[in-house]
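FAQ

Q: What does a record look like?
A: Structure on top, sequence underneath. For example:
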């Protein structure tokens, strides 16, 4: 792959953090598909700085320079111009998309010298910017990070000036504030790194980075919220709720956190709580497409077919590139008996996001509804390949295998669902049916008892009657 390389050099030859920039640019042919920026930054320590604080500040400064240069370039591209976003917004979004790579760094006790580069595919970055700017809440969170960084750098500069003349208690106070500001600056940088990993669906890696961000700033509401969302995606609903609740305790009118908590409640089938949260999210931010999409999902679970369709339509109107909104609209259309329209929406969802497990899952269940069992298994398998941590996916593929009288594979899938959710009454009941059909009556009785204990209606009736159905498993 060819590269467009733009190499830039920066040096610092002044006291405590004042930069004198010397910039050299070397363009290459316009036909290239990548742009690369290199910067070096030398930071001279003040009396308050340690190696750690110097590295934090130097890294943040070099990143800002790289983001600024990339932002100027992206602004010149036609598609980004058409998005009508400001340079600050482009920089904020790019910070959550493009990774800065440290090439080298050196510390001699007085000066911290760092060389870093940023490489990006402009087309891919432009697409990501389009998605982020369409979903205004995501943009708001990234803009808040940029403002927080700008504010912290200004605060550090102010404190450095004050420390030159401060004495006694005033100096001790300024020193404490300086250390706290440096720590928070590192936390914001980590948040941006975690956000990029979350966008790439690397949830475990993102959580590890958010952990560090929260160590740096335990009052970072957006970091709790995004870590909670990652935990939700990994199926850890208890910890997800703890994180999201912490975010809302710090920031009660956070529409993104309310939407994430609503989605978690809906997944746990606590629909009243889910609707309360999602309606509040929409009241706070009426143009938040994701909130309408989540409310559509809640209406689907409650079999409110037209309301589900209306909310999915609103989400798509606000954000025509939201894959999940087309998947939910397809589900609503399927429930209204409009199968051809549903399949068109599923195709659109997959075209927009080929690795969207939810889109394959809902199309698979639509195939099941039309008794296209092999097609259903193929789509469930693809969905589970993309996200193996979804108990419902394993459970529903198990149901399809059971309908094909393949009890061996069905039992394996129900078992996998139970490994992910030990309180899954439906999975215990359906595994009991398959175990009985396979001649394992004792094992079946144990699963039936467990399903009844968890409140499963058919299981409780079977325990009372002493007669476990031997019919093909189905919902």
């Amino acid at each position: 792959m060819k590269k467009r390389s733009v190499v830039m050099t920066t040096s610092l030859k002044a006291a405590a953090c004042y930069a004198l920039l010397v910039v050299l640019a070397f363009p290459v042919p316009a036909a290239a598909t990548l742009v690369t920026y290199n910067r070096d930054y030398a930071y001279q320590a003040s009396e308050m700085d340690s190696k750690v604080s110097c590295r934090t500040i130097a890294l943040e400064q070099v990143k800002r320079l790289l983001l600024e240069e990339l932002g100027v370039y992206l602004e010149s591209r036609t598609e980004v111009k058409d998005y009508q976003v400001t340079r600050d917004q482009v920089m904020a979004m790019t910070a959550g998309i493009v990774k800065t790579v440290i090439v080298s760094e050196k510390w001699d006790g007085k000066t911290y010298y760092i060389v870093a580069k940023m490489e990006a595919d402009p087309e891919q970055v432009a697409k990501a910017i389009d998605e982020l700017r369409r979903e205004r809440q995501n943009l708001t969170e990234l803009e808040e990070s940029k403002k927080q960084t700008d504010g912290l750098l200004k605060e550090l500069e102010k404190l450095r000036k004050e420390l030159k003349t401060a004495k006694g208690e005033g100096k001790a106070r300024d020193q404490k504030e300086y250390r706290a500001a440096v720590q928070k600056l590192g936390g914001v940088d980590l948040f941006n790194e975690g956000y990029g990993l979350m966008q790439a669906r690397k949830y475990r890696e993102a959580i590890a980075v958010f952990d560090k961000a929260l160590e740096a700033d335990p009052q970072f509401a957006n970091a709790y919220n995004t870590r909670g969302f990652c935990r939700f995606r990994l199926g850890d609903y208890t910890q997800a709720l703890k994180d999201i609740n912490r975010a809302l305790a710090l920031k009660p009118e956070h529409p993104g956190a309310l939407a994430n908590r609503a989605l978690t409640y809906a997944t746990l089938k606590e629909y009243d709580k889910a609707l309360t949260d999602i309606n509040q999210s929409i009241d706070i931010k009426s143009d938040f497409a994701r909130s309408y999409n989540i409310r559509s999902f809640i209406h689907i679970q409650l079999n409110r077919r037209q309301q589900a369709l209306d909310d999915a339509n609103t989400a798509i109107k606000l954000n025509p590139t939201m894959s999940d909104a087309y998947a939910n609209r397809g589900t609503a259309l399927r429930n209204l008996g409009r199968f051809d329209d549903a399949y068109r929406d599923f195709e659109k969802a997959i075209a927009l996001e080929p690795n969207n497990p939810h889109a394959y899952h809902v199309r698979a269940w639509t195939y099941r509804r039309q008794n296209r069992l092999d097609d259903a298994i193929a789509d469930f398998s693809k969905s589970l390949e993309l996200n193996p941590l979804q108990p419902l996916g394993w459970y529903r593929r198990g149901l399809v295998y059971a309908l094909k009288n393949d009890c061996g594979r069905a039992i394996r899938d129900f078992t996998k669902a139970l490994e992910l959710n030990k309180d899954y009454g439906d999975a215990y009941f359906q595994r009991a049916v398959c175990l009985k059909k396979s001649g394992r009556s004792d094992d079946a009785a144990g699963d039936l008892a467990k399903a009844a204990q968890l409140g499963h209606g058919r299981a409780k009736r079977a325990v009372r009657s002493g007669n476990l159905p031997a019919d093909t498993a189905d919902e």
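Q: Is there anything notable about this one?
A: Strands lie at 3-7, 10-11, 20-21, 34-44, 100-107, 111-120.
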